[in-house]
Design a protein that fits this description.
With about 200 residues, the protein is an alpha/beta fold. The protein has a single domain, classed as SGNH hydrolase (Rossmann fold). The chain is built from nine helices and seven strands. The strands form two sheets. It has a five-stranded parallel beta sheet, sandwiched between helices.
């Protein structure tokens, strides 16, 4: 049985989904029960938080000689401005991803990276920072032969994602928005990655 650990922030957790599935649950549902999934999303987590808890949490869930895999998604919280500065600088966020990918390769755990979704009510400057961060993350993943699913610009332009986020807390969509994100993952790197 393939074991997939989903590690990241509140978008991974699926905050705001009245169906309590988020995009992770919908992706797992599409596998038809062929995957055991572990959702380790935590609200407000930055790349620093995710990297700090990654290996203790992953080690508790991997089984030797099984098909263990890791999906990571972060960056939206890094780019949030607090007290006049972003929470985590973009170059530091990319460095955290590089560290995670390097350690995953050493451990023989295949990784899929899902790009940071947009925070709709955070404004145009946050969106620009997040788009630029996503491009840098995609470049790193390409250099490491790690699949990357772009989400930022597609969801920022998606009326379902934006309208649901604005109707709630300004960041997290409802069931329809998470369905759109799941569709991006399922149409992106997931199929080849999970079967490979």
């Amino acid at each position: 049985m393939t074991r997939v650990i989903f590690l990241g922030d509140s978008f991974v957790q699926g905050v705001g989904d009245p169906e309590h599935r988020g995009w992770v649950g919908r992706v797992l549902q599409a596998t038809g029960g062929a995957v055991t999934g572990f959702n380790l999303g935590i609200r407000r987590n930055t790349s620093e938080d995710v990297l700090r808890r990654c290996w203790p949490e992953v080690e508790a869930r991997v089984v030797p000689d099984e098909d263990n895999r890791l999906v990571v998604s972060f960056g939206s919280n890094d780019m949030v401005e607090e007290n006049g500065t972003v929470r985590v600088a973009a170059d530091r966020c990319v460095a955290n991803l590089a560290s995670l990918l390097q350690e995953s390769a050493l451990r023989g755990i295949p990784v899929l990276v899902v790009g940071p979704p947009p925070v709709i009510d955070a404004g145009a400057a946050h969106l620009r920072r997040t788009v630029d961060l996503a491009a840098a993350m995609a470049g790193l993943c390409a250099a490491r032969n790690v699949p990357f699913v772009a989400t930022t610009e597609a969801l920022a332009a998606d009326p379902v994602w934006t309208s649901e986020a604005l109707a709630r807390d300004g960041a997290h969509p409802g069931a329809g928005g998470y369905r759109r994100l799941a569709e991006l993952v399922l149409a992106g790197g997931w199929p080849g990655w999970i079967s490979g």
